[in-house]
């Protein structure tokens, strides 16, 4: 529950923030005399202010304010073409400038002028020539008062999130900017499911605690989303719209999957049990999403559309997300279905590993296999990785799925060993999200339980290795110490920095299928393939060609020194029994 003290703490920190903000505060000066501007700026710089805009052309003042959004304006009254009163009047009539504090500067010190300025909404009044210490004092008071006003007017006391009014103001501004810059964004309207029951069962104090926790999770999820280096106005933010409703604005999205992903992450974050009064509570939410400009470009319509989508999400039973656009809705629902089903697939044992043999080019001898995942879906039949791995990657399910594959491959090899079949190494794919410090523990346990350390190989992608090179080097080192052979998969499709490829303890490089496809009769040399083979060899790596489909490709690769290959020319990936029957018998 909100207590007086923590309210004051928040308030205090807001005001302090404003004091530190002295350096951040954007001060605008409107004066027809350039010299006055220069002098005033010099005073303020001495006091720690750093950011200024100014104009000597009164008629331009409003346009500049709308563009620059100053935190405080120093306004001269006596100017040609348009006087300060007129500017003040226009500011107060404009919802975007209505609350910007204005200090009026004038040489006329009569009570009428003062009174008129205050009536028109000036925040303070200073006589010219300006006394430096007086100015600095007034500025500080005004910024502090503004912070206090903002806090009361724009922040929700219970959560510290911005309130509905402020959120809508920011949304309006974002819509204007998006329109001029032709950008896309998304509004997510979030409602807590069945919150009334919680409040009734546990009382309002616990209810407030839950609300506090919900807003922390909203913020945390958005912070994890925000990419460094983004401009301030591009950052996603959250607001509290009413008792149990929140909203999130994504001011800039690159595609339509983006809001779906954020919504999923928010749902997941909110669904985690929440400790209140020693009890584990399960609070879930529903989310309605409307895109701008696709679904609406006007504030009211957008808000209405997001609310309509939220209603649909709620009527679907909660803990889900709906898009306003019917077409996107279908896709989002499908994605969520796949995710749900995939979770169950793991529990119900619907996943399989298929095995595709690899061959030595020098002898045409089979010398290993790659394990490739398939999903034996009860209605859809055999589903290929491209139809479920991406969803698993995005939802994080790839981690348990990948762990399953590692263990399943080891158990399969152990079985083949026990059956007295030929022993060959099996390579398992490791996705970027699996490539984390826990991986060596998982791999270590899988090989220890089955005794397959010498036979398990791992295939890693370029993006795993290049994201955080230092961490990658140490993780690869741990895996190598476990006895793993390590390959870099789909080579050529990512952005490997060759300069540090030689620092990585790798054994093998797999040339991506797309390069092999360029080996076509009559097309001359496949230069990139040649370069990759030469480079890999110079780094001491074994080279494997993926996706070999023709005799011509096989001949070319053999003639150009490639070591191994894999592809439909030899065999498609096969179910375990078929693979064993064909390749492991008669060892
Ligand atoms: P990948 O690791 O590059 O696997 C090779 C893919 O190329 C496989 O597709 C294989 O069936 C296909 N392929 C092999 N030879 C040929 C050929 O001659 N022509 C053509 N057109 N394709 C060929 P698949 O099984 O559909 O798997 C696709 C991708 O899904 C894999 O690419 C891998 O990145 C991912 N994947 C599969 N299983 C797992 C897994 O257990 N864990 C993880 N993290 N990813 C997996
Ligand atoms: Mg692979
Ligand atoms: Mg590959």
Low-confidence stretches: 1-19
Spatial separation of the terminal alpha carbons: 72 Å
Largest sheet: 8 strands, mixed, barrel
Going by CATH, the architecture of the largest domain would be: Alpha-Beta Barrel
- Any ligands, ions or cofactors bound here, and which? ligand C2E, magnesium ion
Could you state the oligomeric state of the chains shown? single chain
Helix count from the secondary structure assignment:
22
Indicate the overall shape: elongated
- Total E-strand runs: 22
Average the pLDDT over all residues and give the rounded result.
87
Beta-strand content estimate: 15-25%
Number of folding domains? 3
Q: What do we call the CATH topology of the largest domain?
A: TIM Barrel
Structural class: alpha/beta
State the helicity in percent bands.
40-55%
Q: Gyration radius, to the nearest Å?
A: 32 Å
What this model shows, in words?
This protein is an alpha/beta fold. It has 3 domains: 4-154, Rossmann fold; 164-341, Reverse transcriptase/Diguanylate cyclase domain (Alpha-Beta Plaits, 2-Layer Sandwich); 349-584, TIM Barrel (Alpha-Beta Barrel), CATH 3.20.20.450. Helix content is 48%, strand content 20%. The strands form 4 sheets. The protein has an 8-stranded mixed beta barrel, surrounded by 5 helices. A 5-stranded parallel sheet has the order 2-1-3-4-5, with helices on both faces. Strands 7-8-6-11-12 form a 5-stranded mixed sheet, sandwiched between helices. α2 links the parallel β1 and β2 (51-55). The chain starts with a helix and ends with a helix. Ligand C2E is lined by residues 356, 372-373, 384-386, 389, 398, 402, 405, 429-431, 459, 489-490, 513, 546-549, 566-568, 573.
